[in-house]
Specification:
Shape: globular
Number of domains: 1
Number of strands: 14
Organism: Allomyces macrogynus (strain ATCC 38327)
Protein name: Probable metalloprotease ARX1
Low-confidence stretches: 269-321
CATH superfamily: Creatinase/methionine aminopeptidase superfamily
Keywords: Cytoplasm, Hydrolase, Metal-binding, Metalloprotease, Nucleus, Protease
Number of helices: 5
Subcellular location: Cytoplasm; Nucleus
Structural class: alpha+beta
Function: Probable metalloprotease involved in proper assembly of pre-ribosomal particles during the biogenesis of the 60S ribosomal subunit. Accompanies the pre-60S particles to the cytoplasm.
Radius of gyration: 20 Å
Amino acid sequence: MPANHAPSSPTLLAEQLSAMTLQNNLSDPTVMGKYRLAADICNAVMRELLELVVPGASTADLCQHGDDLILQKCAAAGFKSVRKGVALPTSVNVNNTVQHYAPVADDDENHPAYVLQENDLVKVELGVHVDGYACTAGHTTILNPNTDLPTTGAVADAVTAAHFAAEMAWRMIKPGRAASEIHEAMTRIASAYKCVPVRGTYSTRIQRYTLDAGNHLYNAIDPEATDTDGHKIKQEDFQFSVNEAYDQLPYVCSDHEMPVELATLLFLDQPNALRVPPVPAAQSGGVTPLAEGSSGGSRRRSRSRKRSKSRGSSVDAREPL
């Protein structure tokens, strides 16, 4: 065989699959160390950012500050010889905006970035990677102007439903369990609070440098769902397996179309799932459920206070979860 002869396609594919398996081996302490460092940076940035999620804050400034914080903390972190940075650009999604609202600087008079208002339901997302191993964080807060009174009604129902849906998923996801069981449980929880899972959103398996490695756990089953080319999306059931990591993103929506998100990164490196600790409760300011883990680009900044504790259809901002 000539020295410059490329391997056959089956051989090349086998080599690529073997390399991918080694790169995503969750029993390797180095791999887990990189995931955990990404999670630590993610949670640290989220804590600082939430302190800026307040009425009057520009969503463009918040997004830019979030990305800047990620880059600063990555530069000072361990694993000096590997690439680190933004995995998922910071986004600040308000009220009925579900995901990925990440405006650039306020330099367009005709389309200025949204400025946060009292009583807004704000969902902050961001992501960090260390050598391609990514973790995302998602945090929902309500900008309650009266910290002495709990938030009530449909917004509190959505926040509470998302909180319990996330808690359920963290406990139920384990090797051998079917994704359909998680979906059914989430639907029942959402229904108990007069909410529904948000169509078009899903949790997914992640791998090194890959935020979507297949195995989509859809929050809502939509038989008519299509992709951007108009092709129907197959929402097939699957079983969770050992040596998998998942970006868990439960989204629920109230009857008033106010979506709420909670997220985390799940590792199935043992018979029981291990989750990265969520962001701890903020020490005062709007209402809040909690926390999460994912990967992607660069941008933004923000502030918030008070954590959410729910009793029935109210969320008390004065007590931590």
